[in-house]
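Write out this protein's structure.
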Amino acid sequence: MEDKLHNYFSENDFDFQEPHSGHLERFERKLNNDKQKQKHSWKWLSVAASIVLVLGFWLGSNHQKSQLHLADISPKMEEVENYFVTAINQELKKVEKNRSLDTETIIEQALNRLEDLEEDYNYFLAELNTNGNQTRLISAMIKNYQKRLEILQNVLDQIQQIKNPQILNDEIFI
């Protein structure tokens, strides 16, 4: 170990000269100047970031208030929307409880169809906001909810058939 260390220092030419006079003072002065400059830039940056955040929250809340939903049309539509949303959420919970390796593909296909219907619903919602209260749009939105619920009910039926294949055989012979 000592031989390696001794060889290293003997083979390499190191600078052993003293630094010029005043080197330490110049070095400390540069360190102090850098600290003072950084304090100001961070302070302004934090103020600017705060302003941007407040502006973003304000614009976001105004945008949400101006968007029209199915429930905003009438109390009856609010009741219809609440019914479908609740029923769909309940059916989704049932589907998720029955998730297994045997049912995975059926559930994934159904969830993909639900995502497509969600995209359609968002399109109808955008149309409702731009074109106003139109009965054809409201009807399409309600049918969209009905299709989602129907898909989930069909998936639950398919899951039951997979879990209990005897049920299908019993129904055929009755």
